[in-house]
Amino acid sequence: MKGYFMKSSIALMVLSAALASCTQDEIVQNDVPTRQTLNISVNTQDFVSEDGSRATTGTDAGRTTAFVEGDAMGMYVISSDGTVICNNEKFVYDGKVWNAENELYYWKNANYIAYYPYNADLTAQNITKVEEIKTKFAEPVDFYTQNTAEAYEKADLMLAEVNNPVDEIIQFNLAHQFSMVEINVPVRKYVTSDGYKYTAPVGMADDSTIKIGESDVKPYMAGKGTFRFIVPSGEISLTLDGRLVYDENIPVYFGKSEAESINLEANSCKVYNVTYNKISETEVERDIEVGDYYYADGSIYPYGNQNENDCPAPVKNGCIGIVFSTTGVNDTDGVNTWNHGYVLSFKNTPDVGMWSADATVTLGEKYYVAGTDFTTEGSVEARNAFLDLKNGYLVTQELIKQENAFAAHEAVAYGDTYPEFSAPEGLSSGWYLPSVGQIYAMLDNLGELDFTTDKQQAHLFLDRDGSRDREAKEAARDKVIEKIQKINADYTLKDSRVWLCNEGANDKAWAIQWFDNWVGFHTDDKTISNNNQKIVRPILSF
């Protein structure tokens, strides 16, 4: 489930007959002469604030939440004598309905328990009561480490119980079983000349002292100055002595060092609103610039070229990439939602691999871009058309329809590989394989490519000698490295070969490599060999 707060969604589970894990002999009171399809309607409740109102803030305006494809929940069915009929049965949402991994049917005179998110570890725990699920969810030593969306959601147990339903149509109303603490802080607000609104990031410093009892808390940065964390309901001791980071290494202190006792009911929240008079409530007009930094919550640090309204020290926590273009965005992708900028990711995928399993993974001739004569002086028009082709999102979405398009699947799963680099849903396209034109734009804009002739540009496309015009190409690469290392000194572009989305033929795909003596684009076999194993370095649009 995405949104991690206003969990308001309705889904219908249609579960077909027969339960593989139990028999009629085991549960004699369930005499089912004919199979009955189990229909389950699932609703979710919002957190409720202390005054009884729904727990929303100004940061949540317009947000919609729903289950998304791949979400999973668990279900128990317990007979009246305490026998477990269904033990932690898993359901996965496919975008429309919930599908059980094992076939299920309706049992009379039983207690039905549904919970979210699914936890496979509960299967071996002999669960028969709701309280046992709550206990197991709160047990992990890292329960309060909730500084990613994944970790926050993992802690936020939602549950519903239906006793002795009168027929096979069962409605679950999932409610939060724990409580939530929310901290709202002021943020810098911006609007572009064409009306696009964005905020600068604000982070929570690592040396902030947020504790529940003696346990350290790492809150989830939900965006637009909102931090949240899940806590057990009941009376708790909260220490809130925080340090906000609007600019790196310049902390802003809030809270107090003494602990306070608060008492929270399940499905309720405690909201703290922080004031800071140095952050204006007024929006500043500023266009997004190449060199701005992009964050997991969709915020943008206004670094740019250090002109008016730019800020000098980008926040490191939560930064997932750098803006490399604000023009021509998605001009061939057919996507209008994310047309404000392109973002380059900071890290390569950890493992080298094939573009695809074999030459049968292809989008066909209309997508092929042959590059054999791009290095000739007579190919300027064709080469420029290729460099203008910014269709990474479109091609990636087509490629992932094929199971063995390995590089494309690696790109869209980048946030799973590196949870700290998860792209914000709804605010961005998500990660995808870049096209040659998009990577060229990155080198040209961030790297400030200094090519004075078409022939020099042609030498970005390798034939047998990738060292031509080496100085200009390496200088561009190194300028990009300098900018991404403002966030982390370990980030680099060097010493790697990176797959791109474009095909050169049914058995060839484009790539870029950036070594000290060899920088440029080339085509190579899609399938693996000792010298063409490559990694993925995705981009996103916002």
UniProtKB/TrEMBL annotation:
Keyword DNA-binding: no
Swiss-Prot/TrEMBL keywords: Signal
InterPro entries: Mfa-like_1, Mfa-like_1_N
Signal peptide positions (record): 1-20
Pfam family, one: Mfa_like_1
Protein name (record): Fimbrillin family protein
